[in-house]
Each structure stands twice: as C-alpha cells, then as structure tokens.
C-alpha cells in the first residue's frame, strides 16, 4: 500500500481528460479548473470514462464523486474499486444552475424544462413558483442545452451551467435557480498507475480507501479502531453492496492523513484484519 512521492507536476496543456457528459457539463468546468489548458473528451457513460483511462486513450479523467446536497455518486465508487486507477487530486466546484433557452425565447412562454434529475430536484422552488412549467428528466445537464439549441423550441428550456450556455450559444433567462446556495460537487482526478508504486503529491494530506470485513460481531469496530488508535480522523464512511454476494458490503472511507508512518502502519494493520483493503488515492484535500 506504499506509494512514491512525486515532485512538481508538468504543464497540463494538451493533455486529454475524459468526463462523463457533454461539453459544457459541470465536469467540463471542473476538468478545466483542475487541469488548465487540457483537452476535454466527453463520454456518454461513466463506464466509457473508465474504459478510456484503462486503455490510456486519455491521460486522466475527472469524475464527480459527491454532491453536498444529493450525496455520493455511487456508480463512481464502484468503478474506483473495480478498476486499476488512482485518485491524484480532489476539487470542489460551486454548482450554479441556470435556465437556458434559444435566443428569442421568453420565460413566460416556457412550458417544459429539461435537465438531469438531480439538477431538477435542486430547483424545486423555481417549479413551485412556475406551476405551468413541467420538469423533464434528461441524461445530462449540458446535453439538455444541446438538445434545446438543436431543436430550438419556443416553449422549452434547459437547466445547466453557464459554460453550457456558452458552448451551445444559449441565452440565460434566469441565473442561480438552485434552492440552496451551499451546493458543491466534489470531483476526483484519476489516472491509471504507470507503475506499482504510484506517485503522490508531497502535499497529500488525505487518503481514500475501500475495505470489506467478515460478518462477525465487532469486525467493523476493529477495522476502524486501527485509525482511532493512531489519532487519524475519518471524514466519510459509506457502505456499498458487493455485487454477486447478497448482504455483503464494501466500506469506503476518507482519512485525514497523507503518506505518513502512522498511516502506513494503520493500513498494514487494516490489511491483516479485513477480507481485503485497497487504497483508492492519496492526495491534497480540497
């Protein structure tokens, strides 16, 4: 579980970064904030994102892992565990939802609004105040803007980022639609390890791991105690079912520690008392 320390990273210009969603999605903005000058590669499905990283057809991927209102992106936790990738960095993006339509469309004429179900759910107050407007679920926030701009209906709009409006030439009719302004999404930048000991930033002070325990009394308590005994704080713990093994679970944990001697000893101890343990990443906390 030990990883090597790397120095200053090289410039990101020209590097290809895979995202789930269309250009203009919030993942697009996060990718450009994390890797300025990168070439964003949009993917229709999360599985395609990880396939591209596996095949090294992209240099890295930027994936949403958790939203402060909607919770965890569970599919991405499963893929991080299943694939040979490593989390290098995290980033928190403030999510601002905008009502976007084709130029010339008036708010009073809108009867349908397309967006991802999570985005629609975060704008309930807008729909309460505008009962004549129907929320319509779509696969992607930016994709909904792309659809509206391709079809140019005079009675429809989309909810997405300001970046999406710019990418597809849409007009923002209303900015800041979200009910709660404390709306942030946490993103991971992931790569395929180039060698057994993946390099980490010398500034790394956070670690993400996954492990499973036997279904016996006190097993989870003993697993977590390896961190408590070494004064390592946990910021997150979440369980996910193990596919093909009903009622068995994997625990995902975030630790406030980097590659320290205490962390290495804790992880070595954890490996001794669990069915399996995997380090998903060691990185600087956002």
Structure report:
With 286 residues, the protein is of the alpha/beta class. The protein has three domains: 15-94 and 183-195, D-Maltodextrin-Binding Protein, domain 2; 98-175, 3-Layer(aba) Sandwich (D-Maltodextrin-Binding Protein, domain 2); 200-286, Alpha-Beta Plaits, CATH 3.30.70. Helix content is 28%, strand content 33%. It has nine helices and 15 strands. The protein has helices spanning 26-34, 46-55, 74-82, 117-121, 124-129, 141-151, 162-168, 219-228, 261-273, and strands at residues 16-20, 39-43, 60-67, 71-72, 86-94, 98-101, 112-115, 134-137, 156-160, 171-175, 184-191, 206-212, 234-242, 245-255, 276-283. Strands 1, 2, 3, 4, 5 and 11 form a six-stranded mixed sheet that branches. It has a five-stranded mixed sheet with strand order 8-7-9-6-10. Strand 13 (234-242) and strand 14 form a beta hairpin. Helix 8 (219-228) runs antiparallel to helix 9. The longest helix has 13 residues, at 261-273. The chain starts with 15 loop residues before the first strand and ends with a strand. Mean pLDDT is 93; it is low at 4-10.
